[in-house]
Amino acid sequence: MSTRVPARPDGSFPVAGRPPSVTAAHPSVTRWAKTYRELPQEAAVTVLHFDSPMSDDERRERLFAGDLFVYSPTPHSMALIAFARQMTETAFAPHFPPEAQHHLAGPDYVRVLADLKPSFINHPRSAELVRGLLSDLGADPAQTYFDVPRLRSMTSEYLNAGLTLQFESHRDTWFSAPMSQLNFWLPVYDVVESNVMAFHPGYFHTGVRNSSRDYNYAEWVAHGRTAAAAQVHAETRRQPGLEQELEGEPDLRVVTPPGGVLVFSGAQLHTTVPNTSGRTRFSIDFRAVNLADVRARAGARNVDSECTGTTLGDFRRATDLTPLPAELVESYDTVPA
């Protein structure tokens, strides 16, 4: 059972209410079925903004406070999806990519991904379209730095390791991301509530026990990332994870059409939903930071991340692909104790 609340005049929804594309997946969602005004003033409210006209500065402030933003497909997001489809359908031919898992043995499937994913990630066209997408959404390209767009594949009850790893509950900030990082996610093909991400907004301001203390980004780049293609049927690489039980329901799931864009803070606790749809979910995600936020160490509040190192060395300016200033990156680059 679910309850829906009308959108506000600005097009936003509190998590208690949601547009047709948002699912709160549990019968107990009725206890959230209150309008924004009915909630106690001291309650933490996560707001979902749909096609918001907010400026980038205001949007980042709201994202750092735990809100989520969803945008209809833009010209560059659709071009990015078309480019991803072209590469993916060529790689998996003659099979339709979301259904290819039913036609290929595990090692053969992974071999396709081992060629496809780095080709997409490192293709100049991918970066060009991400730069355009950021401009579509109102980001200042002179102040915005982004990392490479990644093509993700989440198979349905088939493979779950290495290049097909379905992440357990985590925050990106457990993986050496700065607290100012924003995540951009968009589906390549149609998705449903049983193969997207689940957000746990009740934990945005509340820490959970986790193993991020054992994670250092430089060590991961040197030893973990390079082993991805060798992980076919089982995941053996150590990555940050929960060390306590999570009250995972009710959760919040956002379903957009292909090319629709979901934006959220890297500090959001989220989970890859076990894919029971019968089809592989292909999606694209990338991260971005604003130079002023990085300099000011602005961002979401750190409630439980203890990792070391930094991913900031991977980010490039949207205007000319220049990296962040080296001294700024070094100021974030902590080392293991």
Low-confidence stretches: 1-6, 16-43, 227-232
**Helical content, roughly?**
10-25%
CATH topology: Jelly Rolls
- Mean pLDDT score: 85
The CATH class turns out to be Mainly Beta
Total number of beta strands? 13
Please identify the structural class as seen in this structure. Answer: alpha+beta
Terminal CA distance: 49 Å
Shape: globular
Percent strand equals 15-25%
Structural description of this entry:
This is Phytanoyl-CoA dioxygenase. Residues 1-26 are annotated as: Disordered. Helix 2 (75-92) runs antiparallel to helix 3. The strands form two sheets. Strands 1, 3, 4, 5, 6, 7, 10, 12 and 13 form a nine-stranded mixed beta sheet that branches. Strands 2-9-8-11 form a four-stranded antiparallel beta sheet, with no helix packed on it. It has a single domain (12-26, 45-332), classed as Jelly Rolls. With 337 residues, the chain is α+β, with helices and mostly antiparallel strands. The protein is built from seven helices and 13 strands. The radius of gyration is 19 Å and the shape is globular. Mean pLDDT is 85; it is low at 1-6, 16-43 and 227-232.
